[in-house]
Design a protein that fits this description.
CATH architecture of the largest domain in chain A: Beta Barrel
Oligomer: heterodimer
Number of domains of chain A: 5
Number of domains of chain B: 2
Largest interface: A-B, 105 and 89 residues
Number of strands of chain B: 3
Strand content of chain A: 25-35%
Helix content of chain B: 40-55%
Strand content of chain B: under 5%
Largest sheet of chain B: 2 strands, antiparallel
Distance between the termini of chain B: 62 Å
CATH topology of the largest domain in chain A: Porin
Largest sheet of chain A: 12 strands, antiparallel, barrel
Helix content of chain A: 25-40%
Structural class of chain B: mainly alpha
Order of helices and strands of chain B: HHEEEHHHHHH
Shape of chain A: globular
CATH class of the largest domain in chain A: Mainly Beta
Number of helices of chain B: 8
Structural class of chain A: alpha+beta
CATH superfamily of the largest domain in chain A: monomeric porin ompg
Number of strands of chain A: 22
Strand order of the largest sheet of chain A: 10-11-12-13-15-16-17-18-19-20-21-22
Radius of gyration of chain B: 21 Å
């Protein structure tokens, strides 16, 4: 019955309607006052070429295409947004003009559309267009937006804070850190940081997806990224507690108008997909865009076409004059390290036995200590249990143990949390890129070398602002010129990651290193360019402030002097890394034996001399004993860190 | 096109190096999460490597649209995705109560509608009653909230906040 009626309607009414609509648009017949006003606004927008305005470009996340930057032809655009929901015009993702005119048309749609009405979906666009075209709100349909109103009442945006969870090595993703925004309610509401909201751009993850496949897709843009708004305490739990990352917070000095733009635009991005790329179109890049929408005069994204390293984006925001203060939330591990340091080495065994068994607190060994020491011991013991259990599922025994420790702590009077000394903040560390000029002598030949590193920090670089024992190098290369030869590629490292964590009673960390790329290998005849992947794992120990480590190493190498295409090597390494008042230094010895029976033994000494945050000198002496080659090499390098 | 191609190449190149690394350090395997360590939690599983790699979030992304409000809710029923705040911060709350101060304690006090000038009293009261609030490690958030209400009821200054 229904279908019959429907068919009738389709056959008779629709064609008529269609003809009518066509006539309307072709003849631009002004059907009503609404339409008349709409056309007026569109004409005015065309007259002003509003779609070329930077604000509009920001609001729809357009970027000028790269080719047109080089050519003189007219600029073409494409939007970073990869989601048809976000565009009102058919080719809105590449045509700013069409999208603007379509937006102006859509705000006149019937108010019955409710939450899906353009006025409800795109409040930031409407508000900007209203300013630019002096739109008379009374002439627009009056639309109720219950969902948007509900969201505004929950996620009230009074001010915003840029949040940087620092890097840690035990998760590849966090190697460069991360950024998110915290939005706090306005001054009229009482506020707790914990109950504020975190605004995070990340990939939206289908349940049950395979981890490694995910990793690949995440890097290559196979998954869409979205803005996600979550209670901030979840972020604190995630970073401070589970991943052991210190959190740095930078309150932003946005005006009321700017926070309004931020909040209205954030709503426009609800459930909207962007392609996610680990290196470029990542969390940090998207936040810069958000801040540009909030403060259109700021130009934050311009420098980031190759890679957006989170701490670089933090520096951009600070240099852009957005930041008025700074706060620090140490992770559980950082708090624990500080507590252990305060207690001193002699009491550390007692921390461990307390962590294993709270009833140690009733023994003479514990009771004979001062009340302050007792309290600190209990705190450290509790944090030890938390640290050990952080990534594991709950287990009944350690739950019982934790509660016993808390009960013991609660028997003491109310204590304020100990105030930790604040370390050098990460934005004050050296810059991410590095240029190196080296002059050296190898065997009987002098050479000069030019090196470049895309990112980020190696163990001998100035440690201030960085995590100790964390080396993360990506995309580093060097060109070398011997006096009697042409300029040749000396080295190309894709990645070089080294995690050196001293073990103690409490921290039973493994140290490890993975690196790979191209490098010249010294030999009698010439120096062939070998391709390799190398890695190792072992233990590091604290040796009165310096670090001694030993690693078992393995290496797969392709070298045209080998008989086989690929050869495997096994070996060991012993090293000593120290900090002096001039800078860091290291002494190390490593040996490798290949399946093809080639042996290599390397002994080296390096000393960095820090001149200032972004400048340093480095001396290196190295002796090699290879099968067909034995010689020494000395070099002096100048490092310049920049962005 | 060139842009995407370049990125894919970079990704593939990086991944040639990453797998060994990923296997070596995948934190705690697929079961790792930030569910409560001490008290049982119903907040679900946390991130695995993939989630972590793209700073993603698995689970229901509500865009902040949960019941409850950003700020005060007069009866302490602030919930996120239907789960009460207390259930999600039980570990931190118990630690703060044991010590007698902290962010989790403040957040709970705020959701109970306790005025700023009465926060110290609330902290002291819960601290003094630690063993009543947390009699054993299997106590639930509902039971802890009931105990909080009870001890508040018996306190001259805080009884006005008790539900």
């Amino acid at each position: 019955m229904y279908s019959l009626e429907l068919e009738l309607v389709m056959k008779t009414v629709l064609p008529v309607l269609f003809v009518f609509l066509c006539a309307c648009s072709a003849l631009k017949v002004y059907g009503s006052a609404d339409e008349q006003y709409r056309f007026e606004l569109q004409d005015l927008a065309i007259e002003k070429t509003l779609w070329l305005n930077r604000d509009w470009i920001n609001l729809v996340h357009y970027k000028p295409s790269r080719a047109s930057l080089l050519s003189t032809r007219s600029t073409t655009y494409s939007s970073f947004v990869d989601d048809t929901k976000f565009f009102l015009a058919k080719d809105g993702d590449s045509k700013p003009r069409d999208e603007l005119l379509a937006t102006l048309a859509a705000v006149f749609n019937s108010a019955e559309l409710g939450d899906s009405h353009a006025q409800c979906r795109f409040p930031a666009r409407l508000s900007w267009l209203s300013e630019q075209l002096k739109i008379d709100k009374h002439k627009l349909p009056k639309v109720e937006c219950p969902l948007y109103k509900q969201w505004q009442s929950m996620v009230s945006v009074g001010s915003a804070v840029l949040v940087f969870p620092a890097h840690h090595l035990n998760s590849p993703s966090s190697m460069f850190g991360h950024t998110l925004l915290r939005i706090d309610p306005g001054a009229e509401r009482e506020h707790s940081d914990w109950l504020a909201y975190g605004v995070n751009f990340g990939a939206n993850i289908p349940a049950g997806d395979n981890s490694l496949l995910y990793a690949y897709k995440g890097l290559s843009g196979g998954y869409p990224g979205q803005f996600i708004v979550e209670p901030y305490f979840k972020k604190i739990q995630e970073y401070n507690r589970v991943e052991n990352r210190d959190i740095w917070e930078y309150p932003l000095n946005l005006t009321a108008r700017e926070t309004h733009r931020l909040s209205t635009h954030l709503w426009e991005l609800k459930d909207i997909n962007f392609d996610y790329y680990f290196f470029t179109e990542n969390c940090s890049y998207r936040l810069l865009e958000l801040l540009e929408v909030a403060r259109p005069s700021a130009e934050l994204t311009d420098d980031y076409w190759l890679a957006a390293i989170p701490i670089d984006t933090v520096r951009s925001v600070i240099n852009g004059g957005f930041v008025s203060a700074q706060q620090y939330r140490p992770s559980i591990a950082t708090q624990l390290r500080y507590q252990l340091q305060t207690l001193g080495k002699s009491l550390q065994p007692l921390v461990v036995s307390l962590a294993d068994n709270a009833s140690v607190a009733e023994q003479e060994e514990f009771l004979s200590l001062s009340e302050n020491q007792q309290y600190l011991l209990l705190q450290a013991a509790y944090n030890t249990v938390r640290y050990r259990r952080a990534k594991k599922p709950r287990d009944p025994l350690s739950a019982k143990q934790s509660l016993a420790l808390l009960r013991a702590i609660s028997a003491y009077p109310v204590h304020q949390k100990e105030v930790m000394p604040i370390p050098v903040s990460p934005e004050n560390g050296h810059q991410s890129k590095r240029l190196t000029i080296t002059s050296g002598r190898e065997k009987d030949s002098n050479y000069s070398e030019l090196g470049f590193r895309m990112a980020y920090h190696s163990l001998l670089d100035n440690r201030y602002g960085f995590l100790d024992g964390a080396q993360i190098n990506m995309g580093s290369m060097a060109l070398r010129h011997y006096d009697d030869d042409n300029v040749k590629l000396e080295r190309l490292d894709l990645a070089d990651i080294f995690s050196l964590t001293p073990r103690s009673e409490v921290f039973d960390s493994l140290s490890w290193r993975v690196y790979g790329g191209l490098e010249r290998v010294n030999s009698e005849a010439e120096r062939p360019l070998a391709m390799h992947i190398s890695g190792g794992a072992g233990y590091a120990y604290d040796f009165s402030g310096s670090t001694v480590y030993t690693l078992l190493n393995t290496r797969v190498e392709h070298n045209r002097e080998f008989n086989k295409a690929l050869e495997l090597a096994l070996g060991a390494e012993l090293g000593w890394l120290y900090q002096s008042q001039f800078g860091a230094g290291s002494i190390k010895a490593s040996g490798l034996e290949f399946t093809g029976s080639e042996q290599r033994l390397d002994v080296s000494l390096e000393q960095d001399i820090t001149l200032s945050v972004n400048h340093s000198l480095r001396f290196k002496a190295q002796r090699r004993w290879y099968d067909h080659y034995t010689a020494s090499e000395f070099s002096l390098s100048y490092h310049y860190f920049f962005r | 096109m060139g842009r995407f191609h370049g990125k894919k190449m970079a990704a593939i190149a990086t991944l040639a190096v990453l797998p060994s690394l990923a296997f070596a350090v995948a934190p705690g395997g697929p079961d790792c999460g930030w569910g409560n360590m001490l008290f049982k939690s119903n907040s679900g599983l946390g991130p695995h490597l993939g989630a972590s790699l793209t700073n993603g979030t698995s689970g229901n992304a509500t865009f902040g649209m949960s019941s409850g409000t950003n700020g005060c809710s007069p009866n302490g029923t602030l919930t996120y995705g239907g789960i009460s705040l207390l259930a999600q911060v039980m570990d931190e709350f118990s630690e703060d109560v044991a010590r007698g101060e902290g962010d989790a304690l403040d957040a709970i006090a705020l959701t109970l509608g306790i005025d700023v000038q009465d926060r110290a009293t609330f902290a002291q009261l819960t601290h003094d009653n630690f063993s009543t609030l947390f009699p054993n490690e299997n106590v639930t958030a509902q039971e802890v909230m009931a105990s909080i209400q009870q001890v508040m009821k018996n306190d001259a200054r805080l009884s006005k906040y008790a539900a």
